[in-house]
Specification:
This protein is of the alpha+beta class. 53% of the residues lie in helices and 17% in strands. It has helices at residues 2-14, 16-47, 49-54, 76-83, 191-197, 217-227, 235-248, 251-281, 283-291, 296-332, 342-369, 372-377; strands at residues 58-61, 88-102, 108-116, 126-129, 140-144, 160-163, 166-175, 186-190, 207-212, 231-234.
Length: 378
Amino acid sequence: MPGTLRIAYKLLVNDRAKFVTLLVGITFAVFLMIQMTSLFTGVLGRASATVINIGASIWVMDPAVQTVANTIPLPDYILDEVRSIPGVKYAVPFYSGGALVKLKSGAYQAVNIVGLDDTSLFGRPQLVAGEIDDIFAENAFFAVDDSEFRKLENPKIGTEFELNDHRGMIVGIARVATSGLFGVPTLYTTYNRALQYLPNTRFTISYILVEPKSTKDAQFIKQQVAKAGYLALTKDEFMSKISTFYKYQTGIGTNLMLMTVISFIVGLSISGQTFYTFILENIEKFGALKAIGAKGRELIAMILFQASFVALTGYGLGIGLCALVIALARLQLPDYAATITFPNLALAFVMVVIIAGVSSYFGVRRVLRIEPFDIFRG
């Protein structure tokens, strides 16, 4: 078998034009598949940025909420009711809303305002400049240093701005795990200051953040909240709900899925046709091997080896090219959201295996039907 595989390798690489065409087809297909799925993964991750950054175990919300950005205010009495549920360690109000700030230059910039519980500051970000207690100072805000930070004109501690005719001041620079999806900078402040600075409806609590005494209490808390007519979701459940919304109720999921399928079809058609042409051009050599005693399973192994070698080589080149493009894009485009994950790589690998299998199937059928007599007679 090693001898026949060596022959198969030489047959494959000696025809450089066909070999390069096969590699380019699979590499391009893998590149597009990973690029599209990675972009979708990055978009879903940024869509749940607030949930990830705050880190609450349980989120209480209105049942009609579909994404963390589309808040439906809760009445104040729900906070007291949640705090009274057995198994709740603590529950705090949380504010999240949009606003328009006037910067020092006179320009206006849309921002996302996050209001943390005044007592506990639960969900506070990690500070890289300033002190956490400074948030209690008059007009105090923390600015998040992420990909959108420059839109605030790169503020420093002491930078002032105007928010709804109120004076605001940056007292700290923070960093969070994930940047937001919509290209809007984020400012953190206290819950009561957010209510004071921004116009609000009759109800003001965006979400109630709950920490159970133990993981076993989470299910009971969810049941009790449901009896009150509201919805309680764990962090993972809320992120899954957000992902489902973007997958099936927006055009993002459909468009990226179509691009992935098209990439697969392109790779399959180019590789399948080129590999079958390669088999036809070398059919005499396969016939000669059959005439001198090569068995059918050895010929099948040769073709499978050739298809697998090309597919795996193209797979590796496609991953490398995609990683390079994403790295370069992030250097130039801070908002670029693509993230390569193991599920993305696994999906692309399965598709490459299918491409290799389909390509080799037709080649195997053609080689097994060849008769040595026909080769020598020609």
